[in-house]
Amino acid sequence: MELLKKKCPNCNSYNKRVHRKYSTINHGSRTIYQCEECSTYFSETKNTFLENIKKPVSVIWQVIKVRTEGMGVNAAARTFDIAKNTLFAWEAKFHDLYQVLFLYALVHEFLKLVIEGDEVYTKVNKNVPPDQSLGWTIALMDRASRFIWELSCGKKDRRLFMKAIKTLQKILATTDDLTIFTDGERRYGNILFEICYEIIKNGKQGRPKKTLKKGVKVRIKNKGSQAHKKGPKRPKYQAPWPEHPETEQNIKVYHIHANHVEAFFSALRRRCAAFRRRTNTYAKSTKGLQRILTVHWVIYNFVRVHYTTKQVPAAALGIIDKGLSIDELFQIQIA
Question: What is the pTM of this model?
Answer without folding.
Answer: 0.92
